[in-house]
Structure formats: C-alpha cells, structure tokens
C-alpha cells in the first residue's frame, strides 16, 4: 500500500502554486511558500516586494535588498516575489507598508495567524 504525498493547499483551499523562481524563494528554496517544523519564521506568504516594504524590513534588521553572493542571494527589488514570514507581514501591515500577496501562492498555514478577509485586501492580480 503506497502513501501519496499530500499536496500543499493555499489560503483559497486549492493546490499551492509557486511564488517565484527568479529569484528562487521559499524556506526550501524550491519556489513555494510552505513551511515545516524546522522553519522558525513560518515563510508562508507570497509577497510582491515594494520599495517601502524593503526599507521597512531592513529597518527591522532583515535586509532583503542587499545581495549576498556566498548564499546565492541576489538581493530583492520592487516587483520581485518572495516568501515572507507571516509575522513580519502582519507587522508590516500594522505599520502600513504590507506588500501585496499572491493568494494562490500563500500557504493555508497563514490562516492560523490572520483571516482570509485580511489577506484578500492585499491580493495581487
């Protein structure tokens, strides 16, 4: 008897789609915003970077815009897709600088932290 691997589900209840491959994102660096017990940041939100968000997260000690060649990290720029920690996204939302998100690429785990209505307000088309 074989067990099938469960397909990750997004916040809309459908199969999770990839967030971004260029730059390669996700806790597992496979393009998908999904998580596991070892992911202390819960990288489940597929966000589209903005200048304001990048400046905000840098001010909080997480510089996502500076390249780090030894980690194969190109540095992010406005318009890039990236898997964010749900708590950082919520923090940015309270500060008025939350980036838009791809709902179909945001893991259902995000719903353990906020509502579908809140996330839909930031839907990226």
Structure description:
The chain is of the alpha+beta class. The protein has one domain: Protein of unknown function DUF2237 (Phenylalanyl-tRNA Synthetase, Chain B, domain 1, 2-Layer Sandwich). 19% of the residues lie in helices and 9% in strands. It has a two-stranded antiparallel ribbon.
Strand content: 5-15%
Number of helices: 3
Distance between the termini: 42 Å
Largest sheet: 2 strands, antiparallel
Overall 3D form: globular
| Record field, number of beta strands | 2
Helix content: 10-25%
Low-confidence stretches: none
Q: CATH homologous superfamily, by name?
A: Protein of unknown function DUF2237
Instruction: Using the coordinates above, name the CATH class.
Output: Alpha Beta
Strand order of the largest sheet: 1-2
CA-based gyration radius: 14 Å
CATH architecture: 2-Layer Sandwich
Number of domains: 1
What is the average per-residue confidence, as pLDDT, rounded to a whole number? 94
The helix-strand sequence is EHEHH
Structural class: alpha+beta
Tell me the CATH topology.
Phenylalanyl-tRNA Synthetase, Chain B, domain 1
Key structural traits:
alpha+beta, Phenylalanyl-tRNA Synthetase, Chain B, domain 1
Summarize the structure.
With 125 residues, the protein is an alpha+beta fold. It is 19% helix and 9% strand.
What's the topology here?
Layout (H helix, E strand, L loop, with lengths): L42 E6 L2 H9 L21 E5 H10 L20 H5 L5
């Amino acid at each position: 008897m074989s067990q099938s691997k469960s397909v990750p589900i997004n916040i809309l209840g459908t199969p999770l789609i990839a967030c971004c491959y260029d730059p390669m994102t996700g806790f597992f660096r496979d393009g998908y915003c999904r998580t596991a017990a070892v992911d202390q940041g819960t990288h489940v939100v597929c966000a589209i970077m903005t200048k304001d968000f990048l400046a905000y997260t840098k001010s909080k000690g997480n510089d996502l815009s500076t390249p780090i060649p030894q980690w194969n990290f190109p540095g992010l720029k406005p318009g890039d897709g990236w898997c964010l920690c749900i708590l950082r996204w919520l923090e940015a939302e309270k500060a008025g600088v939350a980036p838009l998100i791809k709902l179909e690429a945001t893991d259902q785990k995000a719903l353990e932290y906020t509502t579908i209505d809140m996330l839909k307000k930031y839907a990226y088309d």
